[in-house]
Amino acid sequence: MFKLGRYQHFKGNYYQALHIAKHSETDELMVVYQPEYGDREIFVRPLAMFDEIIERDGKTVKRFCWVESV
Predict the structure, then answer these.
(1) How many helices (H) and strands (E) in the chain?
(2) Contact 29/20 with Cβ under 8 angstroms?
């Protein structure tokens, strides 16, 4: 089960996962999130992509790792 809260991207920045939304045409689940830096614009990304494991520099890592509830 996906948890809302604070996440760290594999490159180091922190983000707030604010909501889970459903795409109106495809029913695909999306994460509504906000960076903790810059202008703090609101973004959406498919849940499958937000929660995926990727390969980076020969290592497998989660794209976003849960840090804490907010």
Answers:
(1) 1, 7
(2) yes
**18-41: buried (b, 16+ CB within 10 Å) or exposed (e) per residue?**
beeeeeeeeeeebbebeeeeeeee
- With tokens 């614009």, the residue in question is 41
The predicted-structure confidence for 21-35, as pLDDT tens digits, reads as follows 999 999 999 999 999
16 C-beta neighbours (distance < 10 Å), count: 16
Q: Give the separation between CA 41 and CA 59, rounded to whole angstroms.
A: 30
Task: For the chain, give percent helix, strand, coil, nearest 5.
Answer: 5, 55, 40
* DSSP classification of residue 63: S
Inform me whether the pLDDT recorded for 7 exceeds 90: yes
